[in-house]
Specification:
8-stranded parallel β-barrel; alpha/beta; 257 residues; binds 1,3-dihydroxyacetonephosphate; globular; single chain; TIM Barrel; 11 helices
């Protein structure tokens, strides 16, 4: 039976790479993706390398999309250090992450700001990967589903049913990010089912069934296939392993099966 949704794999490079290594990584990923069908792929380089990485991806072929790690919600003005959706589009970006756990828990973004960014990005014509997920403390208190539901409802507040075609949700339990600890495929599947139920409650069954939900948190070539084999896990958002082209390509391949 074929999958109801095309899997999508993202590489979040976070604050890593430089001019030369970002170009080389983009080239290798783009070339590798030329022989992989049935999976959508995007990479999120740091802001300074977006344009160059976009050029390298285009030259390599392979159809890898260029994404940004963050966006500011105002169109222009006195916002020192920030980058608008129009600037991202101008650099060839087509997708952006909002609500990544490092923005929430290291930088201090709240649900209201993440919602503004999500709306601004969608209104500008970018696709959005809305990231949600619980901390270890919240998980131990049994709050996983409540936290996901709160972050999802707040993040999607004001997003229209039509715009949901341009939204991917990434479930990234904070305790699994960069720690080598991964949610079990059963736990991840369970969280994804509940997330899909919330989307169904907000937008109806058809949109819930069509929305891709990625898993993120210490996905590696060795655990990817098992995670992606679960019916509600539509690919992954990859941090550390996306910095090595061979590992990232192996993860992408395991989403085709
Ligand atoms: P790791 O794959 O390094 O755990 O990072 C996951 C992540 O935060 C992707 O956005």
């Amino acid at each position: 039976m074929s999958r109801p949704r095309t899997p999508v794999i993202g590489g979040n490079w976070k604050m890593n790479t430089n001019t030369e290594s970002s170009r080389a990584l983009a080239e290798a990923v783009g070339e590798g993706c030329r022989s992989i069908d049935g999976v959508e792929v995007f990479v999120c380089p740091p802001f300074p390398y977006l344009r160059r990485v976009g050029g390298a991806l285009k030259d390599a072929g392979g159809g890898v999309a260029l994404a940004a790690q963050d966006v500011w919600h105002e169109p222009d003005g006195a916002f020192t250090g920030e980058v608008s959706a129009a600037m991202l589009l101008d650099c060839g970006v087509s997708m952006v992450l909002t609500g990544h756990s490092e923005r929430r828990h290291v930088i201090g973004e709240d649900d209201g700001l993440i919602n503004k960014k999500t709306i601004a990005a969608l209104n500008a014509g970018l696709s959005v990967v809305l990231c949600i997920g619980e901390t270890l403390d919240q998980r131990e208190k049994g709050e996983t589903d409540a936290v996901n539901e709160r972050q999802l409802r707040a993040g999607l507040n004001g997003v229209t049913p039509e715009q949901m075609a341009s939204v991917i949700v990434a479930y990234e339990p904070v305790w699994a990010i960069g720690t080598g600890k991964t949610a079990t495929p059963e736990d991840a599947q369970d969280a994804h089912t509940k997330i899909r139920d919330v989307i169904g409650d907000l937008y109806g069954a058809d949109i819930a069934a069509a929305t891709r939900i990625q898993y993120g948190g210490s996905v590696k070539p060795g655990n990817a296939a098992e995670l992606f084999s679960r019916p509600d896990i539509d690919g992954g958002l990859i941090g550390g392993a996306s910095l090595k082209a061979d590992d990232f390509l192996a993860i992408i391949r395991s989403a085709t099966g």
